[in-house]
Write a structure and sequence with these properties.
Length: about 375
């Protein structure tokens, strides 16, 4: 029997979270600098010596490709949530939802409260040395609604713009048990096909802007469904042997899909399959899995959610509070340390609370059966 927890996938999530951080740090650099180099002037030496050319037009873009990293998050979420299904344990709806809300929502709510307090205390202002993107993320005092943030309506995400992915994660907590049931009744292939059709239909009329709308949630539903299907068939995926040439070819295809020029609506249907391929390749006992099982990637996986929650508010507050861009590496180190602290003080206790509550609900649900048996 295959272990129900695959450490390399935790590590993969950690690396994806770090890529999102790198993406946001790279965007702090003024657009006049980061977009000054264009691929049309390939005969110029300046093009080849600029890091921005390599990060925009070569596979090295993976290191700052936040969009691809988010698609990895969504597929991984479907995989992890479907593990009980793959072990023939159909989760009860409300215990499942409560556990998921404690895992995702409770740390978010605590962090968003701390962020709101920080904006009230720390004096900030426009940062002339930073990008328009960064300055545009600075919320105006009194122009945001803390209640809308806590309700995760998706209409106001100014305190932490990265929360848009969490809006979809929380909504999917209510939808995933239905996907589990579909996999049991229809099978993984038919479930993925149906969810893919749903995603395609709801993608028409979408804009490229990041959105917390329900339409966007349904746009992403196929990624969660594919992740669940992978969990269902993970035993055969892990056992399957691939030769070096086949493995190298699949990695090349995965990278090619992940670095597809970004478009929020239609490119996701290519980038998402790249994320699926990466996860499939990391499932096998190969060199990639061995590298992901090293201590540093495993630590990143452990603190990945905390890192995702705190990094962007810290970055915005620090830079608009007067931090010089040259100090960003120091800020990154401090943010990683704060992610560890956040994991210990907030995330781990919230997760433990969710496990306790779900077990309590399950035991109460079983009590009448025990009495009847007696």
């Amino acid at each position: 029997m295959v272990s129900s927890r695959l450490r390399q996938l935790d590590a993969l999530r950690g690396i994806a979270a770090l890529i999102v951080v790198f993406n946001h740090y790279a965007q702090v650099v003024p657009e006049a600098v980061s977009h000054a180099i264009d691929h049309t002037g390939l005969l110029s030496a300046e093009v080849w010596t600029s890091p921005w050319f390599w990060l925009r037009y070569t596979p090295l873009r993976l290191f700052v490709d936040g969009e691809a990293a988010v698609d990895v998050f969504f597929v991984l979420s479907g995989f992890v949530l479907a593990l009980p299904l793959s072990l023939d344990r159909q989760p009860e709806f409300w215990p499942f939802v409560v556990k998921r809300l404690c895992r995702i929502y409770l740390p978010f709510a605590i962090v968003i409260g701390c962020v709101a307090l920080a904006w009230m205390i720390v004096p900030t202002g426009p940062a002339p040395a930073a990008s328009e993107w960064l300055n545009g993320l600075r919320p105006r005092p009194g122009a945001y609604s803390l209640l809308q943030h806590l309700l995760m309506t998706g209409s106001d995400m100014s305190l932490n713009p990265a929360m848009w992915t969490l809006v979809h994660e929380v909504r999917m907590a209510a939808v995933m048990p239905l996907i589990f049931l579909m996999i049991r009744k229809l099978g993984p292939v038919h479930t993925v096909a149906l969810c893919l059709v749903i995603s395609l239909l709801f993608s028409f009329g979408m804009t490229d802007s990041i959105s917390g709308a329900w339409q966007a949630t349904l746009h992403f539903i196929w990624m969660f469904a594919v992740g669940s299907a992978l969990a269902f068939g993970r035993g055969s995926l892990i056992a399957r042997h691939r030769g070096p040439l086949a493995t190298a070819s699949l990695w090349a295809l995965a990278i090619a899909l992940l670095v597809v020029p970004f478009n929020r609506v239609w490119a996701d249907f290519l980038i998402g399959w790249g994320a699926v391929l990466v996860i499939v390749l990391c499932l096998s006992h190969n060199r990639a899995a061995s590298l992901l099982s090293l201590p540093l990637p495993l630590w990143l996986g452990r603190v990945s959610y905390s890192l995702y929650l705190i990094h962007l508010p810290i970055l915005i507050i620090a830079v608009t509070g007067g931090l010089a861009l040259g100090a960003l590496p120091v800020l990154l180190v401090l943010t990683l340390a704060m992610a560890e602290a956040c994991f210990r003080a907030i995330e781990a206790p919230s997760h433990a609370l969710g496990v306790m509550l779900s077990r309590t609900m399950l035991s109460r649900g079983d009590r009448p059966d025990h009495k009847a048996a007696a």
